[in-house]
Design goal:
The structure is a homodimer. Chain A is of the alpha/beta class. Chain A contains 12 helices and 14 strands. In chain A, the strands form 3 sheets. A 6-stranded parallel beta sheet of chain A has the order 4-3-5-6-7-13, sandwiched between helices. A 6-stranded mixed beta sheet of chain A has the order 9-8-10-11-12-14, sandwiched between helices. In chain A, strands 1-2 form a two-stranded antiparallel sheet. The two termini of chain A are about 50 Å apart. Chains A, B: One of its GO terms (molecular function) is transcription cis-regulatory region binding.
DNA sequence: CTGAAAGCGCTTACAG
DNA sequence: CTGAAAGCGCTTACAG
């Protein structure tokens, strides 16, 4: 017998779901006893308990989460506010968050906001009205804050890949560490003249990745290959940078380039390849983002830094749950480790490095 | 005075939100009168009504949506189930849906499911427990159905960019129409030898786009330029196709290529350009998807078909709301119009076409 | 025009 | 071990 068969048609002809009252009646006990049996609470004859559970199962009973929330003062829902309609960052973060939360019985509302303050307010209000237990705010840059006065919000908040106001709790990728890992890997492969081509200086990630590059080099007692080249986060800029390297005499070219993102790496590889420079033999290239659509389309496939965005979303959610439970959690921004995804553009096919 | 100031600290030290009881007490009326005043229901002295509303405002009162849902048998929430973790389709759809719903006071739960039936079940159960009013199911292919027995679900369901089971209601882009518009535009620009390079035949979208290509051609009394070239949805395949055209004698080359997606178009343009063939002068190229990251990175920028995914999400949500309201809505799949995004690869800068 | 009562679907002390 | 009562925060008939 299918559970649906046990459902009753109500007056309007739609299917009415069984309530705990139905279960109690069918089992011949009171509602409070039914509740206790279904929640494994208190002591009771296990024979009774099992009978009630069997009846519930048969009626396809599922407790109404809203009724539960009302008495428990806890909705088991979260709100995710994001202004990244582009989707590059939000979707992995949301997927990681949503999956981890689903396993714990909590569901997450998606609020796609542009940066119009009025719409932000609308969405925040909706989340308050729906009595979500907490909010995760996610952005597309770690140095920009959303235009909402979130501190005035009556619930725990966690920031992901977005600026974290003083005293708040945030999660961002460890840009410096990721860059350090990428450059160290290049060094371990024997490269010594490692250039850096990256995005606009106005992004804090640019400074951090540059520091990682410098630290890896100095730890290996190597000099930076000139200044970092800062420009746009685009293929076009990567291409231009590649042409610039090509114009150097062979002896003055870098033997590797660490790029600030995958698009730059893609453009750079195109420029190099067009001029007959072999990647990785002549110049090794490493990117940043592991945006698969780019990283797997380059020839050869791109070695790049993965920011572990799913994990970022997951950790943010778990921490938010702790806060909701009243556990003490330290204020401040956490930098979660990136991991290097080794493909072929760095000169190491490295099936073992995976 | 800020609203937050009016909040009271409860026993645990967290901020307690004002309830309707607080409002009623502060205004010196009964709870039922307060409710009526706040909901603009029934008749009452407008002086009383305004006084109550003022008190509510001052206390920062916001009705608890879950309590409301409990009595109204309507939660003003929706679930969005998607298996497109890739994000290409889901994010625009979700953004369009979420924005349209937010304006109507309904919030949407995001359920990122892989295709593991067990996790699908987990998420569907969560949505049922949370008593969402309806479900929108979105996928990454219009010819694949999710592995859930959704008909057994006790609520209205709408499918977006996914297969639509018999008798259900679905929304997909009008692939045939989009292709027709793209090819017609090429024809209007004077092209006559229009080839088609596209994805795997196993995708229904491939057949539909091919039909659009054929219809536009036959309406203009033009012949197809050979068979459609079917391969992968990748730059690599587009590149290979481009090389193939290059290998033809000049007089036997197409003067335009309609590509099944933007990645193919990108690869094709690269191959053409590398061989000294000018785009669009020698061969015009049009893509499909308007995936901006590709469409704006090609040289020249790509003219392509936009599937209007945001609008798809919006329409799906509005229709779902109608179903929830009990309005009659016709079963079947709706094909929503695509629109051509004219850039430069088709040979028409067309500032007026925008 | 206003308020007391009942109820939405649950859980949680508290009596028996 | 089991059940009656009260209550979570609201709304909706129904009396006054």
């Amino acid at each position: 017998m299918k559970n649906a068969d046990a459902s009753l048609l109500d007056a309007t002809g739609t299917i009415a779901r069984a309530t705990i009252k139905d279960v109690a009646a069918a089992a011949g006990v009171s509602v409070s006893t039914a509740s206790k049996a279904l929640n494994e609470r208190g002591r009771m004859a296990s024979e009774t308990r099992e009978r009630i559970q069997a009846v519930a199962q048969q009626l396809g009973f599922r407790p109404n989460a809203m009724a539960r929330a009302l008495v428990g003062q806890r909705s088991f829902t979260l709100g995710l506010l994001t202004n990244d309609t582009y989707g590059r960052f939000t979707l992995p973060i949301a997927a990681g968050l949503s999956a981890a939360m689903a396993d714990r019985g909590v569901s997450v509302f998606l609020c796609a906001i542009d940066d119009e303050p009025e719409r932000v307010r609308l969405n925040v209000n909706a989340m308050e009205d729906k009595r979500v237990d907490g909010l995760v705010v996610s952005g597309k840059r770690v140095d920009r804050v959303l235009p909402v006065d979130l501190p005035a919000v009556h619930m725990p908040v966690v920031y992901v890949n977005a600026a974290c106001p003083p005293g708040a709790i945030g999660f961002v990728p460890d840009d410096e560490g990721g860059a350090h890992a990428a450059v160290s890997h290049l060094i371990s492969l024997g490269r010594k003249r490692i250039a850096h081509v990256t995005g606009p200086r106005s992004f804090s990630a640019v400074g951090l990745r540059e520091q990682g590059w410098q630290r890896a080099l100095s730890e290996a007692a190597l000099l930076c290959f000139g200044e970092a080249l800062s420009g746009e986060w685009s293929e076009a800029f990567g291409y231009a940078a590649g042409q610039r390297f090509v114009s150097y005499p062979v002896s003055e070219r870098p033997d590797a380039v660490f790029c600030g993102n995958d698009q730059i790496a893609r453009g750079l590889i195109d420029a190099l390849t067009l001029s007959g420079i072999r990647v990785p033999q002549d110049i090794a290239v490493v990117g940043f983002d592991n945006w698969e659509i780019f990283a797997t389309a380059t020839r050869p496939p791109l070695t790049t830094v993965d920011m572990a965005l799913k994990e970022l979303g997951r950790q943010a959610g778990l921490t938010l749950l702790d806060m909701i439970d009243g556990k003490p959690v330290e204020a401040g921004q956490r930098r979660l480790p990136c991991r290097l995804k080794v493909r072929e553009s760095c000169g190491s096919p490295a099936p073992w490095a995976e």
